[in-house]
């Protein structure tokens, strides 16, 4: 007689960055079946939006996630622009695309580091964390913030791209072209890393189609899908993007964790190319259609209808739907579907037949949305003291001011 | 009347579902909307095509089809979409509209060609005196979380959905309270606090 037993991984687990519970049914060490139970951090954000006007919801939407905050903002803004028929100046479209690709770069770098941590490859994890600082510095130079950039607004963007930023971004591109190769090699060509990721957490192509998997998770299973290609938006209308799929590089798509790793790593190079194209072709002109927010609010108060925004976020297609009622100040309702919402449905399929020890790696392999990003203070231990929230904020602002005044730390070639 | 585009793998639904592939071709959004109008006639309450441009030329490169369908034609309509391509499911959105819960299903077709994708928003009004709708879980298992979420937030029952457990609400939630409803079934004012 064979008996199975059930154990939970999560909601709080050392291998997981955000609370989610996977109830795993085990036969020995082998996972027979799995049930996933989210909901541990449901914050009712969609409900909160009903008490806010569209401009306030911009900043609320930014706080859905720390890593892909710009994707959520832009998706919400595009839903409003869809229903209210707002147009966006061409320069603003390019700046939005620039932000989207910087964010994708940041998300993929962070994830590849975290994936190394999950398989116990801590030196590669630290390398990933070190590399990600550079793109965060560029984002800070543009917006003043490392996360939650506050850049997008209805009909355009709020911050312009300066020649200093272009120089810093080009330096960053050179830095990644030089430094990212060694990282990719030490992980992808490492026999232990390969053994941990190859044929683990497989999602077949048929299942990826049937379960509506999205983003790198779908592409790793061999699906040539990417909203940047199938429904080009912003500057992607001018810049061709081809979906990155493993069969083009390794002959076949196996849909395992290593393929998901490879797709994200290859997309880093793709992002660098897109960033370069955007910087080369950045058009002149205004960055916002209507800078007076009161006028924007007044016109949105008259708008009536439902809008749908859909973009390719780092983790897959992000979908926001918004309803405005004519005469109402506030958003009537708002639905957010982050990519993890779609990909999490496939988790039980990826678990089946795998070993218990691989469960956190499989959970992390779809890059579940990690919404906590704090600013760290490094101390030498000798001058340690209590840093209050106010001190921290002051030091954060000082760092941004210094960077803007003195240029990028260490120049273009740090 | 526009001719119906070539059918994928025979007319049977099982045949269309057995090939889990996205079509390498795309049907023009206008042709698709004409074909759907011819197939469903008066059961289509409203239909709107939205186009989105971008870039230097601002040419339309993204198209969405917004369709409201009669309740009885909901499931046949979703099945009909499979004639054109394997449907990609995004999410169900919705609102409490007085005597009904209006649900919007968000789908995508034709994702292989550049600019080929057609987004389909299928709206269906479920009357509050009979809050029940056929599940599409058997066609698109990816819809599971959305159907469970719609069930717990609006109280719409999905016939044929195997797992009707709560998905986002806590285990000890009073299931008589439906958070997104705007009537007596919704949360009472004293249940809501700290919305800032």
Brief synopsis:
The complex is a heterodimer of chains A (414) and B (196). Chain A has 414 residues and is mainly alpha-helical.
Question: Overview of this structure, please?
Answer:
The complex is a heterodimer of chains A (414) and B (196). With 414 residues, chain A is mainly alpha-helical. Chain A has three domains: 5-37, no CATH class; 44-84 and 293-336, no CATH class; 88-288, Cytochrome-c3 Hydrogenase, chain B (Orthogonal Bundle). Chain A contains 17 helices and eight strands. Chain A has helices spanning 45-48, 54-61, 69-84, 90-118, 122-143, 163-188, 191-197, 205-210, 215-220, 227-230, 247-250, 257-280, 293-302, 339-343, 347-351, 359-365, 389-406, and strands at residues 5-9, 21-27, 30-37, 152-153, 156-157, 305-313, 316-324, 333-337. In chain A, strands 1-2-3 form a three-stranded antiparallel sheet. Chain A has a three-stranded antiparallel sheet with strand order 6-7-8. Chain A is globular. Residues 370-379 and 410-414 of chain A have low confidence and may be disordered. The model of chain B has no long low-confidence stretch (mean pLDDT 90). Helix content of chain B is 19%, strand content 29%. Chain B has helices at 13-18, 29-40, 74-81, 144-154; strands spanning 44-53, 60-69, 88-97, 100-109, 118-127, 132-134, 157-159. Chain B has a domain at 13-129. The longest helix of chain B has 12 residues, at 29-40. Chain B is an alpha/beta fold and 196 residues long. At the A-B interface, helix 1, helix 8, helix 10, strand 6 and strand 7 of A face strand 1, strand 2, strand 3, strand 4 and helix 4 of B.
Q: Which descriptors would you attach to this protein?
A:
heterodimer, A: 414 residues, mainly alpha, Cytochrome-c3 Hydrogenase, chain B, 3 domains, three-stranded antiparallel β-sheet, 49% helix, globular, B: 196 residues, alpha/beta, five-stranded mixed β-sheet, two-stranded parallel sheet
């Amino acid at each position: 007689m064979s008996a199975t037993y059930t154990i939970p991984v999560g909601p709080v687990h050392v291998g997981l960055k955000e609370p989610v519970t996977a109830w795993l049914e085990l036969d020995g060490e082998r996972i027979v079946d799995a049930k996933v139970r989210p909901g541990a951090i449901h914050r009712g954000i969609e409900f909160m939006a009903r008490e806010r006007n569209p401009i306030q919801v911009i900043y609320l939407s930014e706080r859905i996630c720390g890593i892909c905050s710009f994707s959520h903002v832009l998706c919400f803004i595009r839903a409003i622009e869809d229903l209210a028929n707002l147009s966006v100046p061409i320069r603003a479209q390019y700046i939005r695309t620039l932000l989207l690709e910087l964010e994708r770069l940041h998300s993929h770098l962070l994830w590849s580091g975290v994936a190394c941590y999950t398989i116990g490859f801590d030196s590669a994890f630290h390398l990933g964390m070190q590399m990600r600082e550079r793109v965060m510095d560029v984002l800070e130079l543009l917006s003043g913030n490392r996360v939650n950039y506050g850049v997008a607004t209805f009909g355009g963007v709020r911050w312009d791209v300066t020649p200093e930023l272009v120089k810093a971004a080009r330096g960053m591109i050179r830095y990644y072209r030089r430094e990212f190769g060694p990282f990719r090699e030490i992980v992808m060509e490492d026999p232990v890393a390969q053994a941990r990721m190859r044929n683990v957490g497989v999602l077949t192509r048929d299942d990826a189609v049937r379960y509506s998997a999205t983003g790198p998770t779908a592409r790793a299973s061999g699906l040539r899908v990417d909203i940047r290609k199938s429904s080009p938006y912003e500057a992607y209308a001018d810049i061709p993007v081809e979906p990155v799929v493993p069969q083009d590089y390794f002959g076949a798509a196996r849909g395992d964790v290593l393929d998901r790793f490879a797709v994200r790593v290859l997309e880093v190079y793709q992002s660098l190319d897109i960033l370069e194209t955007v910087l080369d072709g950045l058009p002149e002109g205004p960055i916002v259609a209507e800078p007076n927010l009161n006028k924007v609010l007044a016109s949105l108060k008259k708008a009536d209808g439902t809008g749908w925004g859909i973009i390719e976020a780092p983790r897959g297609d992000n979908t926001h739907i918004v309803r405005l009622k004519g005469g109402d100040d506030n958003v009537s309702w708002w639905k957010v579907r982050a990519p993890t919402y779609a990909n999490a449905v496939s988790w039980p399929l990826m678990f089946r037949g795998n070993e218990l020890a691989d469960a956190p790696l499989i959970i992390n392999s779809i890059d579940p949305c990690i919404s906590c990003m704090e600013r760290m203070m490094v101390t030498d231990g000798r001058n340690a003291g209590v840093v209050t929230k106010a001190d921290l904020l002051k030091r954060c602002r000082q760092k941004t001011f210094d960077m803007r005044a003195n240029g990028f730390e260490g120049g273009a070639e740090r | 009347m526009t001719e119906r585009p070539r059918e994928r793998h025979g007319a049977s639904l099982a045949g269309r579902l057995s090939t889990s592939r996205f079509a390498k071709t795309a049907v023009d959004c206008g042709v698709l909307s004409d074909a759907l109008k011819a197939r469903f006639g008066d059961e289509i309450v409203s239909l709107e095509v939205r186009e989105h441009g971008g870039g230097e030329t601002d040419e339309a490169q993204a198209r969405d089809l917004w369709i409201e369908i009669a309740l009885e034609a909901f499931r046949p309509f979703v099945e009909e979409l499979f004639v054109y391509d394997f449907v990609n499911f995004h999410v169900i959105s919705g609102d409490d509209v007085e005597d009904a819960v209006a649900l919007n299903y968000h789908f995508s077709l034709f994702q292989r060609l550049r600019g080929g994708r057609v987004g389909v928003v299928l709206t269906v009004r479920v009357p509050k005196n009979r809050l029940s709708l056929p599940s599409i879980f058997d066609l698109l298992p990816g819809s599971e979380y959305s159907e469970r979420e719609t069930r717990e937030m609006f109280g719409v029952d999905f016939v044929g959905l195997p797992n009707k457990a709560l998905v986002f609400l806590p285990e000890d939630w009073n299931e008589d309270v439906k958070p997104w409803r705007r009537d007596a079934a919704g949360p009472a004012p004293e249940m809501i606090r700290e919305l800032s």
